[in-house]
Amino acid sequence: MTMAQTELKAPRPETLFQRNMKLFASSKLSMFFLCVTIGFVVMAVAAPLIAPHDPNEADLFRRLMPPAWMEGGDWAYVLGCDGLGRDILSRIIYGSRISIFIGASVIIVATTIGVLAGLAAGFLRGWVDVVISRLVDILLGFPYLIFAIALIAMTGPGLQNIVLALAYKEWVIPCRVVRGETLATTGVEYVEAAQAMGASKSNIMLREILPNILSPVLVVSTVRMANVIILEASLSFLGLGVQPPTASWGAMVADGRSFMLQEWWLSTFPGLAILLLVLSINVVSQGLRDAFDPKFHD
Predict the structure, then answer these.
(1) 259 vs 39, which has greater pLDDT?
(2) Domain of 146, in residue numbers
(3) Label partner for 193 (CA 20 to 30 A): which of 73, 92, 123, 217?
(4) Cβ 219 vs Cβ 285: under 8 Å
(5) Is the pLDDT of residue 7 over 50?
(6) Is residue 13 part of a domain?
(7) What is the model's pTM?
(8) Rounded CA gap, 195 and 199, in Å?
(9) Confidence grade of residue 90 (pLDDT, cut at 50, 70, 90)
């Protein structure tokens, strides 16, 4: 075998991203909750296939039916039925679509806006940085939930309005992270080399700086998705989320308030679904932070 063939077959060195992902995969706890999170996503996508009943099918003869293992329960309705006789399990399965869709949509929109704004503020500086930074400071001065309630009160409830209301302020978090990372990156050798070669500002920001600051953006986006899911559930609980009869975990918890002492399952099971999904995302984000942040490496 010639030396040239040996060089061609030599494995490529691992990138920092690949090494960090291997470190993340080595955590059994993070991988377990990643599988739980993926399970929720699969459940949301395949809801029409796995839901045992129509989530909006009401039958007053089944009103407040208890879970199957309790007296008066029916194994055809494992988690029981709500005040209108609708199957709770089916509504939880379909409700996962709302929580995951809104969480993912808000994070995608907010992260895209925040990354672009943060890159512009950190690299261009000057008046661009001043305008963006002051806007971020103003938005951070408003409590998130109250801010979202005010926007939805003006625009009206609905899926699209919820996404816009939550994304309207959510972008400031990735913006601040990206701005700080960009300020720390602008003086490194590869950025100065690109500037010396006459690369355009947009080329430097998108091709030189952005690929090297994606790790903190990934971690922050994962953390914030759990927060957005809680906010969506809170809005639905207050009646400002998606409107009936669409299944929503927050609305299901609210519907069971009047029956909490006797028919505990009405609020408990959707509340546990919120808890498990948010816990899973938070554990995954913690694992990503531990893997991608050098401060947590041995």
Answers:
(1) 39
(2) 29-47+67-293
(3) 217
(4) yes
(5) no
(6) no
(7) 0.84
(8) 6
(9) very high
